[in-house]
Amino acid sequence: MPSLVEVNLTMNRLGGNVGLRPTLKTSLVSSLSSIQKLNLSHNRFTNLVHLFRILEPPSIPSPSGFIVQMDSSVSPLCQKRAMVEDCEEEERHEKIFVSSIMLLTTMAAWYHRKSIVKEMPADKAEKNVERQSVFETLFSETYCMEQLHISKQSFLKLCTILCEKGGLVETKNVPVKEAVAMFLHILAQNLKYRLIKVTYCRSVETISRQFNRVLRAVMKLSKDFLRSYEPKLQGQEAEKWKWFEGCLGALGRTFIPLNVPLEDRSRYRNKKGEISTNVLVVCSPEMKIMYVLPGWEGSASDSQVLQDALTRRDHLHVPSDKYFLADVIYANGPGFLAPYQGTRYDLKEWAGNVPTNYKELFNLRHSTAMNVIERTFKLLKRRWGILQTTSFFDLKTQIRIISACCILHNFILDEQPDDLLLQDIDHELEAELVPKNADEPGDEIACVQATSQWAEFRDKLAMEMFETFQGQQGYENEF
């Protein structure tokens, strides 16, 4: 039988007996010996396909060289099946159409509810009136200083910076100023959401969302504020640091309470038994924080934290020709100048005393300059009450809050050089340095040192105890 190049019965739904025969005029077909392609796509109800050759030439040849002949006798069952299939397909089209209409209707309703301004309900109108009165009170200088611990002018500038550099965007219902005010209020007073809810007439969900938005915006300012600063010292501060040429600042650590899961509390417990994080802070002579590393467990050693700060990706940069003043808890090595151990150091110990050798003189001047780190820690915790006690946030958020407080600390130092909180802290530190009995020197112990005289006193007291012990009747039963 001569071969057929292609038989295409696509969409032949009603089927029947279909015969395809080559014409005598097609020499190409007669030269082939096998069927190359038979396409019966969607030919669902074909009963029989006949491929045969007719010797006599057909009366009406097809353009392709074939004649397609379909028998007129179609099975009723095939017709019924075809009608059922057509109905099912129409039903599918209708379902798709109805689903599309419902989806579009839902999207339009959502857009109308979220984006189109409608008449405000009575209860929301009352809340807006209360919120407006709170906002008017908030923008008073007294309220900003007492509740937010920042001046009104600095607050407005902070909002502008967060929008321009932090990517903070105003939403439809909550202005940027209100979001920043809620954020600062929580940090300054360590308040929970339910208290902020009453003050600002907002839901807990709204306060939480706005707090995290502002926190992310503040963290984006870290490169602008947590950086190296060229010291510009004058007056008494310049006198403190003139002995340490090439010094960039001071390095120290502090413990900040954390709220951690029960299974992690043993790792975060420091030597005092408090659950806290060991925070490494590097500040300039002007009290600006240059680097901060929170997150380490309270039980971690200070040298381990410092080593991590020098090797991590966002590491502490220490030029080879510069150095930082370090506390006695750190080793005295390249880049970090520590005081002499076993020698009087703390400024409180120097009240009413003068150095008697070169080590004591060095420690006195070292401690005087290192006082900047203590002032920084006190100011940081005094301004942001959330750093003084544990908070209700998760561990990751608490770590980010510590960094955010350091960023805001530097911002406020730039905007408020005459800070009242700093003045109060300086007065407290000066009062601690005044000896209690300055007119009667030598009445109190200023330092602890081993002496032969004190050893003789201890031996004499011990022998008296032993003689009395031996003279007692039945002393073997005393214990």
TrEMBL record:
Its cofactor is a divalent metal cation. It is found in: Nucleus. Its main location: nucleus. Pfam families: DDE_Tnp_4 (PF13359), DUF8040 (PF26138). Residues 141-220 form the DUF8040 domain. One of its GO terms (cellular component) is nucleus. Keywords: Hydrolase, Metal-binding, Nuclease, Nucleus. GO terms for molecular function: hydrolase activity; metal ion binding; nuclease activity. Residues 256-410 form the DDE Tnp4 domain. It comes from the Eukaryota. Belongs to the HARBI1 family. This is Protein ALP1-like. It comes from Nelumbo nucifera.
